[in-house]
Amino acid sequence: MKRPAWDWRLTDLADVPQHGRTVFSCFSCGGGSTMGYKLAGYTVLGNVEIDPQMMRIYQRNHNPRFPFLMPIQDFKSIPDAELPPELYDLDILDGSPPCSVFSTAGDREDKWGGEYAFREGQAVQRLDDLFFDFLDVAAKLRPRVVVAENVRGMMIGKARGFVSLVLSRFRELGYRPQLFLLNSATMGVPQKRERLFFIAAREDQPFPPLRLKFNEPPVLYGEIRSGEGPPINSSSKTYQRWQKRRPQDLNIGDVTEREEGKISNFNTILLKDQKVANTLASSSVFLRTDQPRHISNTDAIRIQTFPADYDFMDANVQYVCGMSVPPLMMRRIAEQINVQWFGGNASKSKDDTNQAN
């Protein structure tokens, strides 16, 4: 029988038909977007990543031709003559500017304008400036298309003004931006992950408006569940929350009263076999409803549609997955850009055509 699309391997990429379109990825992390483009037949030339650990993992799994380990501000300041000429002939510039200041969890407005290290070991940056640093890269490289992914929180409350500024900046640079709020659960991903995508075509490209509508059947947690995760510490607050919430048979979308603080209880999520998993965040605590255990690493990999043979090296599996775009989500988007704008056909990878071993 056919393997489902979420059950794939990096080795499958060798069987994906190539159409020659090129991509360069900023804020690449573990390469979720990179893998999506590759599954759709694109050639990903390289990446920019600030985190040394994430760059090591990216290079191990993706072997980029042009890797840049540096802040995006340093990359955009590299003299034009010192960059590879291939980067000035890109079909797509891709990026996922860090977005925690726009998250719907916590007092997000209090963080705007502040300087933070996104994680230990990284440079301190103003996170809400990074989107405009990314657009400066677009102004420098002038790709045919720019794709930027961010959190749904950018469309809520005061953050909508930030979105307007981003759209205006796209237009100033000579791009026609479109905005899409997409749910990965409609795209064959075993996860209800809502993300905002800015997709902009350069003004000289005679493309019609892009249409993105996906209606694939939901993939329930019970379909991808595998292995045993670590047990919940019976003396922890997490165990108390598991006991409290489990008998009430709550929907995984429900949020209980946050008695122990906004972060801890908000990020404790119980998964049911008959439901689609919630958004896998790098810091969320995913528990199984029917047993006092965390989810397994295999669960996290499948929920995020990472390949089964991905080498996480010394990194936490959930952190790498949670910080990345689900590859299958980006694959669906990239396929439509190729079909609707670049005049190609949707590629088929090994997971669509081969029999399971």
From TrEMBL:
Entry EC number(s): 2.1.1.37
Main EC class the enzyme belongs to: transferase
Gene3D superfamilies: DNA Methylase, subunit A, domain 2, Vaccinia Virus protein VP39
Keywords: Methyltransferase, Restriction system, S-adenosyl-L-methionine, Transferase
Positions of the catalytic residues: C99
SUPFAM superfamilies in UniProt: S-adenosyl-L-methionine-dependent methyltransferases
Entry annotated with the keyword Secreted: no
Biological processes, Gene Ontology terms: methylation
rRNA processing in keyword set: no
GO molecular function annotations of the record: DNA (cytosine-5-)-methyltransferase activity
Family affiliation: Belongs to the class I-like SAM-binding methyltransferase superfamily. C5-methyltransferase family.
Protein name as catalogued: DNA (cytosine-5-)-methyltransferase
Phylogenetic lineage: Bacteria, Bacillati, Bacillota, Bacilli, Bacillales
